[in-house]
């Protein structure tokens, strides 16, 4: 039998409080996201820096958000008027002040569903943030990747560069995976094991599709 070895990393997303992040550091996650986007800019730096030093002392990677994403995740809603795009000058100061490895950028991306008119991403801002991040050896992360078209994700012509070509190296997808799970529950099944198996298959299909879209499929050997 052939044993496939696929490198997997387990990441703790949106740590909005010190106690939960301290627990995540103890539990053995490979990386954590410090989400201080609800705090003032100064407090976000202090909070992120604190967790960042602890995580780095354990050899873990740290992602943090600058700006603020609107939308709904885990039944929590950040209203549109609270959303804030990432500021390039602040980003340099934030990276210097916190020592993070990855920056979750806010360029018009949202958690949950995009409006019927579709996503309105500031790709010019993404390009500037990527230039700055690469100078500092920081990875660019895009949350709110459910509902992004193929055209927005990657190059589709010599005239059009997508988010990957503009620097994004990690996409966060949640809504589409959850939707597949919920939809699988709507068709009747004979037993709980079938309900669980079909929900798992539905989620796996979305993950596989996204891995192909983002270009991470087939890289394990
Ligand atoms: P979506 O809501 O677009 O799936 O984004 C998820 C996300 O960014 C999780 O952190």
Give your account of this protein's structure:
The chain is of the alpha/beta class. The chain has 2 domains: 11-172, TIM Barrel, CATH 3.20.20.70; 174-221, no CATH class. Helix content is 40%, strand content 16%. The chain is built from 7 helices and 9 strands. It has helices spanning 18-27, 41-57, 88-98, 123-135, 150-153, 175-185, 192-214, and strands at residues 11-15, 31-34, 61-66, 70-73, 76-78, 102-105, 110-111, 139-142, 168-171. The strands form 2 sheets. A 6-stranded parallel sheet has the order 1-2-3-6-8-9. The longest helix is centred in the last third of the chain and has 23 residues, at 192-214. The protein is globular and about 55 Å long. The two termini are 17 Å apart. 1,3-dihydroxyacetonephosphate binds at residues 13-14, 73, 111-112, 143-146, 172-176.
Tell me the strand order in the biggest sheet.
1-2-3-6-8-9
What class would the helix/strand composition place it in? alpha/beta
CATH class of the largest domain: Alpha Beta
SSE string, helix = H, strand = E? Answer: EHEHEEEHEEHEHEHH
- Give the strand content: 15-25%
Shape, per Cα inertia axes: globular
* Tally of distinct domains: 2
Largest sheet: 6 strands, parallel
- Which range best describes the helical content: under 10%, 10-25%, 25-40%, 40-55%, 55-70% or over 70%? 40-55%
Tell me which ligands are bound. Answer: 1,3-dihydroxyacetonephosphate
What is the average of the pLDDT values? 93
User: What is Rg?
Assistant: 18 Å
DSSP, total strands: 9
Corresponding CATH architecture of the largest domain: Alpha-Beta Barrel
Distance from first to last alpha carbon:
17 Å
CATH homologous superfamily classification of the largest domain: Aldolase class I
Q: What is the CATH third-level topology name of the largest domain? A: TIM Barrel
Low-confidence stretches: none
């Amino acid at each position: 039998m052939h044993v496939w070895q696929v490198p997997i990393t387990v990441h703790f997303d949106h740590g909005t409080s010190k106690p939960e992040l301290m627990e995540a550091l103890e539990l053995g996650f490979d990386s954590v996201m410090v989400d201080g986007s609800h705090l003032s800019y100064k407090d976000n730096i202090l909070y992120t820096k604190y967790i960042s030093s602890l995580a780095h002392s354990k050899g873990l990677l740290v992602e943090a958000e600058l700006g603020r994403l609107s939308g709904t995740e885990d039944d929590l809603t950040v209203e549109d008027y609270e959303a804030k795009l990432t500021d390039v000058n602040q980003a340099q100061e934030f990276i210097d002040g916190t020592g993070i490895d990855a920056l979750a950028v806010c360029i018009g991306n949202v958690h949950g569903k995009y409006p019927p008119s579709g996503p309105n991403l500031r790709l010019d801002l993404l390009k500037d943030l990527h230039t700055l991040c690469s100078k500092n050896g920081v990875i660019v992360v895009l949350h709110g990747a459910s509902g992004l078209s193929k055209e927005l994700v990657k190059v589709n012509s010599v005239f059009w560069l997508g988010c990957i070509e503009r620097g994004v190296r990690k996409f966060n997808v949640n809504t589409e995976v959850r939707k597949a799970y919920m939809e699988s529950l709507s068709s009747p099944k004979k037993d709980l094991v079938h309900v669980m198996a079909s929900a798992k298959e539905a989620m796996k299909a979305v993950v596989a599709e996204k891995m192909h879209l983002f270009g991470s499929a087939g890289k394990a050997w």
